[in-house]
Design goal:
Blueprint: H1 2-28, E1 36-38, H2 57-63, E2 70-74, E3 77-86, E4 91-94, E5 101-123, E6 131-149, E7 154-172, E8 177-178, E9 186-187, E10 189-207, E11 214-218, E12 234-247, E13 262-272, E14 274-277, E15 280-281, E16 284-289, E17 295-298, E18 301-303, E19 312-315, E20 319-322, E21 325-327, E22 333-335, E23 343-346, E24 349-351, E25 360-362, E26 370-372, E27 375-378, E28 385-387, E29 396-398, E30 401-404, E31 419-420, E32 423-425
Parallel strand pairs: 1-2, 2-4, 3-5, 4-5, 5-6, 6-7, 7-10, 10-11, 10-12, 12-13, 12-14, 12-15, 13-16, 14-17, 15-18, 16-19, 17-20, 18-21, 19-22, 20-23, 21-24, 22-25, 23-26, 24-27, 25-28, 26-29, 27-30, 29-31, 30-32
Antiparallel strand pairs: 8-9
Length: 476
């Protein structure tokens, strides 16, 4: 009897020893509905089912049927691809959350349709890997709810893609800037774009300050390495950027090492119905485009306590810049090129911008330049406009508030053509129907809407903010 009891206790102990192991295996398996599964304790000799998951993402991507809308669910853990691996058409690669699933290496999305990647972290393994996501010739693409960090040169490169959305992604420390004072340096960008159609890019957080480099810039594989301007224009059609928060380092590596770093650059592009809105930038956006039909830049915030910047390089046709708040920096609207026309700037606030020009700086003539219903709050006795090659007959500067907070600034408008119906405070009145009285800006409350509201009832249809303007969201 005693031997039987001992034998039963031994069997029970063995059972109890096995149970925790089974529980551990079950807990490590991916949780959720999918067609195929990858788990840290799986085996690539398995079938990719939830009960027999694969061990590697590589095995899953090479085994899943193409163009059948299959979902691969990757469980908790770190999965190293060992290099760059292709994602086939019709596949949804899904992690178990950005804090649970990490993929190291690069993913290639080339010649694909209907690809989705979400709910995971892409890690460059301390710059061992060059690029997280390489996208070329893609249709119906969705990238969202991702963290991308630690890549050697870039986080994401996308070209010739249409019908897609990129959103809810944090990108940190994925570029470098080997800046050399006086020029000769080299740098990369967090994200490069070219030739996009019907694309939405929103709710991105980009921070390149750890090693330096640009935010989002233009790059095409059809441009020559040494003379990229000789290649064909990239085409952006119905592309919207919004809810971006981009922070970059101080200086661009080129331009003698004294050009402000770029947060968002559309260069050598042709833009049709494009928008940049509701975003926050700590440095310059550069819009140097050709044959553009429409770009609208609105409800954005520029602000930095230590970065030199000019808000918008406006070398583009048919550009509308409205309802933005520019705080600090120099010559916020700058045009250094030539041959561009139809720049409309309205309902913006320019606060404490600096020399050499406080508002508009144009090295060439800008036909059909419109500047109306803006509030300029100056704290220096510096010119407001600069037209190096003269003003154009169709220019309009009207219904603005020009306010100096440092006493009598004198004759600093530096513009004559089309100047009418403007309010000047501590600045010499210029133009037709010029007004000179204190608008009584609130200068308290939330910036900018409440802070720049005029209390003087004589102010009607002047400046960016009316006395009854409802609250608006500016910046991300």
């Amino acid at each position: 009897m005693r031997k039987t009891i001992v034998r039963m206790l031994f069997v029970l102990a063995m059972v109890l020893a096995v149970v925790p192991s089974c529980a551990a295996n079950y807990a490590a398996a991916p949780v959720g509905k999918a067609d195929y599964y990858v788990a840290a304790n799986g085996s690539d000799r398995g079938k990719g089912t939830q009960s027999a998951p694969w061990r590697s993402v590589n095995k899953a991507l090479s085994s899943v049927p193409h163009n059948q809308g299959k979902t691969i669910l990757v469980g908790a853990g770190t999965f190293d691809l060992g290099g760059e691996v292709s994602v086939p058409s019709g596949v949804h690669l899904k992690g178990s959350g950005v804090n649970r699933t990490t993929i190291q290496g690069g993913l290639k999305i080339l010649q694909t349709k209907n690809v989705t990647i979400d709910q995971l972290k892409l890690d460059g393994k301390r710059q061992a890997y060059r690029l997280a996501l390489w996208i070329l010739n893609a249709d119906r693409l969705s990238l969202h709810d991702l963290v991308i960090t630690g890549y050697r040169e870039d986080a994401l490169s996308i070209e010739r893609a249409k019908n897609g959305e990129i959103y809810n992604i944090a990108m940190t420390d994925n570029s470098y800037n080997r800046w050399v004072a006086g020029g000769g340096g080299k740098q990369t960008a967090t994200m490069t774009i070219a030739n996009l159609t019907d694309f939405v890019i929103h709710d991105l957080t980009i921070d390149s300050r750890a090693r330096g480099g640009s935010g989002i810039v233009s790059y095409s594989d059809q441009w020559g390495k040494d003379r990229p301007w000789e290649g064909p224009n990239s085409i952006l059609k119905n592309v919207k950027f919004y809810n971006l928060d981009i922070k970059v380092d101080r200086w661009h590596a080129y331009g003698g090492g004294s050009t402000p770093q770029l947060t968002l650059e559309l260069w050598h592009q042709t833009c049709h119905n494009c928008e940049i809105s509701q975003s926050t930038f700590n440095s310059t956006i550069s819009l140097v485009t050709n044959d553009t039909s429409k770009i609208r830049v609105h409800h954005n915030l520029w602000s930095s306590s230590d970065n030199p910047f000019y808000a918008c390089e406006a070398d583009s046709d048919n550009l509308e810049f409205d309802h933005n708040y520019v705080r600090g920096g120099s010559y916020p609207i700058a045009m250094f090129g030539e041959g561009k026309k139809n720049l409309t700037v309205h309902h913006n606030i320019f606060e404490k911008t600096g020399a050499p020009t406080l508002v508009g700086h144009f090295l060439n003539r800008m036909p059909n330049f419109k500047f109306y219903n803006n509030t300029v709050y100056a704290d220096s006795k510096t010119r407001l406009f600069y037209f190096e090659k003269g003003e154009t007959p169709d220019q309009e500067i009207r219904n603005n508030i020009f306010y100096s907070s440092v006493g009598n600034a004198g004759d600093v408008l530096n513009a004559k053509v089309g100047v009418r119906n403007n309010l000047f405070y501590n600045i010499k009145p210029v133009g037709m129907n010029a007004m000179s009285f204190d608008p009584q800006l609130a200068r308290s409350g939330n910036q900018p809407i409440l802070y720049f509201q005029p209390k003087n009832k004589r102010v009607t249809d002047l400046g960016a903010i009316k006395t009854d303007t409802p609250g608006q969201t500016i910046g991300k």
